[in-house]
Design goal:
Layout: H1 6-12, H2 27-47, H3 52-109, E1 111-113, E2 120-122
Helix pairs in contact: 2-3
The chain binds zinc ion.
Residues 114, 116-117, 119, 128, 130-131, 133 line the site of zinc ion.
Length: 135
């Protein structure tokens, strides 16, 4: 494969660079932690004699917080998947392009060696350019 021009070699074998996976906690663990937080917040609010709506807010707040985090994480994963897909597509496109230009390059460079004088001739020549022998 010496015919592949230098500038295409890198593109022909792009290095694998998968996007790193974000660390994730199991949903059950998150839920239990949030529930404990919610109960703790609510009972603290109740113990200091906060009004009922504040107790409810203290109970609901951790759930809202986690919901927010989960939604953001989902969006982040979508973004990663999209980036990965775009990278794969670009890689395919590059491969196609390289294959095409290698084909183009080789079409013009295939030479036939004359068996009498050793001179190089075009693929479709019928007679040797140097000695005139039939190819
Ligand atoms: Zn010849």
């Amino acid at each position: 494969m010496d015919e592949i021009p230098e500038e295409f070699r890198f593109a022909a074998s792009p290095e694998e660079d998968p996007l790193p996976e974000a660390p994730r906690m199991s949903t059950a663990v998150i839920f239990i932690v949030v529930l404990i937080l919610a109960v703790a917040f609510a009972s603290f609010a109740a113990s200091i004699g906060a009004p009922w709506f504040f107790i409810i807010f203290a109970f609901v707040a951790p759930f809202l917080w986690v919901a927010n985090i989960l939604i953001r994480r989902g969006a982040e994963e979508d973004r990663r998947a999209e980036a990965q897909r775009a990278a794969d597509e670009e890689r395919e496109r590059l491969k196609e392009e390289v294959a095409q230009s290698v084909k183009e390059t080789m079409k013009g460079t295939i030479k036939v060696r004359c068996r009498y004088c050793g001179g190089l001739n075009g693929e479709h020549d019928e007679k040797c350019e140097s000695c005139g022998a039939p190819l």
